[in-house]
Amino acid sequence: MKQEQILISVQHVSKSYQRERGAIQVLRDCTFEVMKNEFLVIVGPTGCGKSTLLNLIAGLDFPTSGSILLDGEPVTGPGADRGMIFQEYALLPWRTVLKNVELGFEFQNREMDAGQRKAEAMRYLDMVGLGYAANKHPVELSGGMKRRASLAMILAIRPKILLMDGAFNALDSKTKMTMHQEITNIWASEKNTVVFVTSDLDEAVKLSDRIIVLGRNGEIDAVLRNELPRPRLGSAARDPEFHHRFVAFRETVMNVIKQDAGLRTCRVA
Amino acid sequence: MANQNGGNAAGFQGKLLDRVFYVTGVLLFLAVWQAASSFKLFGADFSESFSPVAAFSALLEMIQSGELVHHAIPSIRRVLTSLSLAVVVALPVGVLVGYFKRVEQLTYVAFQFMRMISPLAWMPIAIIMFGVGDVSVTFLLWLVAIWPLILNTSHGAGRVSPLWVNMSRTMGAKDVGILRKVIIPAAVPDMLTGLRLAVGVSWIILVPAEMLGVPDGLGYFILDTRDRFRYDQLMATIMVIGAIGYLLDSANRWLIKKFAWKL
Q1: What percent of chain A is modeled with pLDDT above 90?
Q2: 211-250 in A: which are within 8 Å (CB) of B?
Q3: How far is residue A204 CA from its own chain's centroid?
Q4: How much is the pLDDT for A263?
Q5: Which helix (H) or strand (E) holds A205?
Q6: Domain for residue A235, yes or no?
Q7: Which chain A residue lies closest to B162 (C-alpha atoms)?
Q8: What was the pLDDT predicted at B151?
């Protein structure tokens, strides 16, 4: 990789929280890079600091030691260049879906009149297939629809980087498949960079360019390049040769995670 | 508002049935009132003039003479003035208290202490500070309206999900944007609840407050009718106080229905 292609650089990042019974170390000396237009997936057991890592990149929290560089500049706080999609739905309940998507334009005081805002917001709602629900309130939406609305809301601000924290957790498998197709399409057309946190290995293998396995102790266990050819969804997935490679790669990732769990058991014993 | 048993029947017929029950309730109320006067429950000498029939004819008389308007307008004006002043102070204070934990800690004891004091206890102080008259009454009403507004607004602002704030920040929002687009709208339902409580308690306190030596208002008029032995007019005034209070509360409920979002 050439130097100018590096977009995010995470260098020796550690993070610990002070609790009543002493400090809890969540991340330990994590170093990796995210390339421009890369789809990077971070997997690992629950509670290993995946979400913390994403919060640090978003600038919502800061490392205890180490640094995070964005285009070579240290992250000093949140910014509209890094759109974050949270594990819970963050839609404002008093606004319609359309008005939620327009929120970003209002925050950024873009020079747009009401009609332009509406048209632009509709474009993104259509992109996630939610145009028909533009005038509904969040309380009227199903879980899958809320995900789509959150996605449209963040996409509308055209972030360079999409940070997705367990964004498709708790969706039924059919909705999840649709969302995988949509995020892949959007990523391909908008040419943004995605850092995607999940504990679903199938999802990780389907979407990623690279997979980072974060261990139980907050260290990076492995960085694995996903060599599976795209497209990987729909009819492509039914090819036996592809399927074989898919399962093999998932096995590789699984083994790293198992080894991590095994290590921990040994240490305790 | 729905019936406890069976609930509201659907459709036009059901709505009609609901109406019948509301109207029957009012008629029952009037019947109990008439019975109380017929059986001389208000005392042997005056029960006649306390009856609903006497009250309604006194009401007509007061409307025709202009007395009703003459006393109702200042009362409504005082309540609305003090409410507006209370809103202007309470909303910003409530947002600060609700949003910043330290401000809440600073003010908690003082506010909880102050809100438990009947505003009528401040009466002598109000008169020393502002003299007898409109300003004292408005001050007392302001003092009673401000606490439910502050406490409810702060509750609303305190409920703002950190998720909404974080999301807004990653969407490029500045502090002012977050305040205007997230925190204040999030607190609107609680502000309206606070307003409803404030209106209720102000209207109740208005009557004793207007007994402080102002020359008009419904509270003043109560004392006036007593001094003139016009118990029919007194009863009519009580009815008017209840009716205006009911209308103010209905207006509030309409506001809540229209502007309060629900989760």
Answers
A1: 46
A2: none
A3: 11
A4: 62
A5: helix A201-207
A6: yes
A7: A90
A8: 94
Residue A194 phi, psi dihedral angles, 5° rounding: -120, 130
- ipTM here: 0.76
**Geometric angle at alpha carbon A91, from A88 and A94, rounded to 5°:** 140
User: Domain of B10?
Assistant: 1-39
Distance CA B253, CA B56 (A): 28
Distance between CA atoms of residues B139 and B153, nearest Å = 21
Residue A183 lies in a domain: yes
What CATH number has the domain bearing residue A37?
3.40.50.300
* Closest CA in chain A for residue B188: A94
Question: Would you call A84 and B170 a contact, using CB atoms and an 8 Å cutoff?
Answer: yes
CB proximity list for A126: less than 8 A, separation 6 or greater:
none
Is B45 domain-assigned?
no
What is the value of pTM for the model shown? 0.77
**Residue pair B85/B213 in contact by the 8 Å Cβ criterion:** no
Q: Give A-chain residues touching B173 at CB under 8 angstroms.
A: 107
* Same domain, residue pair B140 and B250: yes
- Angle CA B193–B199–B202, to nearest 5: 135
Into how many domains does chain A fold? 1
Q: How far is B109 from chain A (nearest CA, A)?
A: 27
Residues B112 and B22 in one domain: no
- Cβ contact A97:A103 at 8 Å: no
Residue A168 CA to residue A170 CA, distance in Å, equals 6
Contact map slice: B 155-194 vs A, CB within 8 A: 161, 163-164, 166-174, 177, 181-182, 185-186, 188
For an interface test with B, give the residue of A51, A92, A165 to mutate (most B CBs within 10 A).
A92
Q: Where in the sequence is the domain holding A214, given as residue range(s)?
A: 3-81+159-268
Report A:80-119 residues touching B (Cβ under 8 A).
80, 82-84, 86, 88, 90, 92-94, 103-104, 106-108
> Residues near B141 by Cβ (< 8 Å), separated by ≥ 6?
B78, B79, B82, B83, B119, B202, B205, B206, B209
**Pairing of the two strands A73-74 and A65-70:** antiparallel
What does the angle CA B177 – CA B181 – CA B183 come to, to the nearest 5 degrees? 100
What is the C-alpha separation between A245 and A224, in angstroms, rounded? 14
Would you list the DSSP string of A31-59?
EEEEETT-EEEEE--TTSSHHHHHHHHHT
Residue A141 has φ and ψ, to the nearest 5°, of -95, 150
Query: Does the residue A95 lie in any domain?
Result: no
Number of domains making up chain B: 2
DSSP string, A217-231: TSSEEEEEE--PPSP
Look at residue A127 and tell me if it is in a domain.
Answer: no
B72 vs A259 pLDDT, higher one: B72
Nearest by CB to residue A78, choosing from B169, B185, B188, is B169
At residue A132 the predicted structure's pLDDT band, cuts being 50, 70 and 90, is very high
Residues of A in contact with B181 (CB under 8 A): 92, 103, 106-107
